[in-house]
Amino acid sequence: MGRIDIIMGDITTQKLDAIVNAANSTLTGGGGVDGAIHRAAGPELLERCKKLAGCAPGEAKMTRGYKLLARNIVHTVGPVWQGGTQGEDEVLARCYRNSLALALEYQVRSIAFPSISTGAYGFPVDRASRIALREIRAFQAANPDMERVVIVCFDQATHDAYKAAERDIIASEP
Predict the structure, then answer these.
(1) How many domains does the chain have?
(2) What is the pLDDT of residues 81-109, one digit of tens each?
(3) CA-to-CA distance for 115 and 131, rounded, in angstroms?
(4) CATH (domain of 114)
(5) Model confidence pLDDT, tens digit, residues 31-60
(6) Which one of the listed residues 5, 10, 34, 145 is annotated catalytic?
């Protein structure tokens, strides 16, 4: 199975085959990770994204990385937290599954994810981290061509939540 690294840092500086953008449904930039990626990639990214006609929650679309160190950007739209009763867990899981499947289709072997939906969309990071790691591990087990996945955490609290989730998942394995 491939490797999962959990680091603190800036996703826009990752030199991998692809990074994942926690995008809004218009794909035209915004705040948080989305805005940072658009600023770092340059105006060509916005022009390309306008031609993609948006993206539904849980789905994923691919663009070039433009001025980023990463060759590609996978754009996915996470769920807005509504208390956990509106299918948010499944939509978040689909973000990871669809992003990884699309990346593999484009022969991406290394990819970095932010903590999708845990910023402005309000998804609880403890819950999101477990969903993310479960989906990534399952994908890697079935797809050995995905050599490396990096979770890039913007702050210490998010990093701590992902590390705790990783310990819990490993401890629960046979």
Answers:
(1) 1
(2) 999 999 999 999 999 999 999 999 999 99
(3) 11
(4) 3.40.220.10
(5) 899 999 999 999 999 999 999 999 999 999
(6) 34
Structure tokens at 144: 């050995």
The range of the structural domain enclosing residue 105 comes to 3-172
Contacts of the segment 56-59: beta carbons below 8 A, 24+ positions apart: 56/25, 57/25, 57/91, 57/95, 58/90, 58/91, 58/92, 58/94, 58/95, 58/98, 59/94, 59/98
What is the pTM (predicted TM-score) of this model? 0.96
- Compute CA distances 111 → 50, 78, 119, 125, whole Å: 23, 17, 20, 20
pLDDT tens for residues 18-38? 999 999 999 999 889 999 999
Q: Is 34 a catalytic residue?
A: yes
Q: What radius of gyration do the chain's Cα atoms show?
A: 15
